[in-house]
Amino acid sequence: MITRRRLLESASAGAALATMGVPFAEAAVPGMADALPAGVRGEATLEALPGKKPLIKLAYRAPNYETPIEYFRTPITPNDAFFVRYHLSGIPESSDKSIDPKTWKAEVGGDGANGQLTLTLDDLKAMPASEVVAVNQCSGNRRGLFQPHVPGVEWGYGAMGCARWKGARLKDVLAKIGLKKEAVEIVLNGADGPAFDKTPDFIKSIPVWKAMEDTTLIAYEMNGAPIPHLNGAPARIIVPGWTGTYWMKHVVSIKAVTKPESSYWMNPAYRIPVGKFPVVAHFATQETATTTPITEMVINSLISSHANGAKVKAGSVTVGGIAWDAGYGIRGVDMSTDGGKTWMQATLGQDLGRFAFRPFSLAVPAKKGKLTVMARASNAIGQTQTSALIPNPAGYHHNVMHRVTLDVM
Amino acid sequence: MRTLTMTRTMVLLASVLALPALADEAQIKLKDGPGRDKVEGNCAACHSLDYIPMNSPFMSAAMWDAEVNKMIKAMGAPISDDDAKAIKEYLTKNYGL
Fold first, then answer.
1. From A15, A60, A195, residue closest to B24, measured CB to CB
2. Which residue, A172, A180, B74, B88, shows the most beta carbons closer than 10 Å to its own?
């Protein structure tokens, strides 16, 4: 238990410093929503992790840092502003041989495969490369806005980002080992792990059908650069359309299995109640009578051109943001300045593909006083955002229409 | 890895401790009160203490109970019954409803 004692020492040293009156950072991160728990608004700070711009620090260890809204004015989120999310605090350093690009390897096999192989980064890069622009969003993005609040990481709007991912198709890797017809899921594990060895390691699975889609990748590049350390270097799984929980960072193990994976992180974690959300993409081998794994993202949009409470000049103001869904395709974004009684169609911007953030904007008339603007996205299969929160115990799938109130001068 | 050896865990921990951001954990100051030492001594072994104020002040006694029980039963935290009781009381009194 040497290491545990070291951690305890470090924690008590920290507490001692604090009681000795060493000044600690005043919180008050600008722009945090009033609807968030008072505790997170008081505790959050803007801080830069190595290689990152200052992000909104919600928790140091395991690190959970969200992207400030101003970075969502473009459909691509810069690598150094991309959110960081870990469940467990055992994160290898970038020089650790488990994730050093020179020594990294992934074991591919499992009882649902005919063979097995060890992949190096060179092996991966020698395979046909594929690119996809896709949104990586935490299942619990906006959890902090739930009313009543639910426990967890109390995210605001920024537990998401959109990047151009490049890598090998997972199906091409699986073709090398050959899947048995009995294979039901592909189980993924990363080089990171728990601080304490009794804690369940973060292990996830996806159904074989999802693993075989052309857009499901083992990526080694993000926006034309190597994947940043805290976003899953040197290789992570990309599951476009599905929430971030399946996008295994630092992936080192890929197994085809004939029985459903039963890790803590598959059940009871990451579950939504059956029948509450419009699930198109079913994960049949994991469904129970009452719960089903969260799978695809719900349709959503965010106004990012202005912070809530921003001052603007009377006349006309162009308000905009980004919209996204599970890959069915954003068909339109409507905006309202009268609380949703009447709607105006926004102009859609650059289309980087069906899994990407889609920009939208609209010039709206602005009379002196308060102006509240709402956005509502809709997609090619007729889904739209909700006006009333859909409660669920873990605080997933918040897609209540976003609204921003401007101060028109 | 499903079966982390202690050596492996130690390597991971050494890596975590090297993250510069960890220095800032010293800035977290929980409210003073009976049981704070138990919280710091147990909870901080696996996670920074900012998880506590982040989840406040909306949790009832029953919700804090459930959270501590989850850490013990699901996450394997080796917390004694006495400490668990003190932790639940501290959290409810200082970070509860």
1. A60
2. B88
